[in-house]
Amino acid sequence: MLDYRLSDETESLRTTVREFAQEVIAPQIGEFYERDEFPTEIVRQMGELGLFGLPFPEEYGGGGGTYFDLCVALEELARVDSSMAITVEAGVSLGAMPIFRFGTEEQKREWLPRLCAGEALGAFGLTEAGGGSDAGSTRTTARLEDGHWVINGSKAFITNSGTDLTELVTVTAVTGDKPQGGKEISAIIVPSGTPGFSVGKRYSKVGWNASDTRELSFDDCRVPEENLVGQRGRGFAQFLSILDEGRIAISALSVGLAQGCVDESIKYAAEREAFGQPIGRNQAIQFMIADMEVRASTARLAYYRAAEKMLRGEPFRREASIAKLYSSEVAMDNARYATQVHGGYGFMNEFPVGRFYRDAKILEIGEGTSEVQRMLIARDLGVG
Questions:
Q1: Domain Acyl-CoA dehydrogenase/oxidase C-terminal: where (predicted)?
Q2: Is 367 a catalytic residue?
């Protein structure tokens, strides 16, 4: 018989993160969001809480937990704020995980302890301007010269790439041609401050305003040959597997936002009065909130199922795409409903649902658009 109850350890983690989100993040994140400012001190505190090391072994400074533990933490963070949730998600899934999964022992020993402690952030440079979903169209190049990779090109929409805590970006680059034809794409670590590596200004974004997202440029940027991550020519394949895991994490984040919309709507419906009574007594409001809860609860089951298969070592790509597709669209729906429940106040950034509404849309785009998820699901079903 299925049992979706959390273990005592994971339930304790959930409670701890929930309290941190409510007591530390909630009172101040709105101001950072309005100023379009990255809250370095909050991120350091999340590191001290152990969030960046959750799914990594203790030998590398991690918490010895599982990827599911990370997902539970992301859900609780996103119930209050998605900027901080995506900072953790990207720092773990995109910054540290490629090194853990594919790096050499020397690379793990050098980079993972600080990344796991949240003392440093890592990023992954895959997307390029004009590429988008077609990540295989990589134009950034890297050639070997005197024991160094010489990198030229640019990357776009890279999270955690220019903060005071950022210490490395792993980038995909064309390192040659495959014998059978096509591009040989490899992944290479570029430490922050390397000559020829420049970081652009923070993007002016619709949402996630307290997170860091930038364009990166490489102009004859030289790094040692041993900065290659994994096997040469396997960089793109490696990152596709990282994306499969990351989609479960984004699903958890989406569920958190969707549940946060429920939380805020319940509270507001009890406080706001119209026509002489709390609006929560109106059936129209009750039904909207009930529908929001149904969606959030169902989306949670979807990412639980995907994580369950991943942790058992079973194929989980279809389940990850299902979870990511459904939960991201649920987040968007719930944000719209919550804004409607709040009326004019829902359009104000001082109310959390205003931020939720702005933050929700990117969830249908980042780490694989909804259209890409549908394509992957259909392909796995043998359709087309």
A1: 233-381
A2: yes
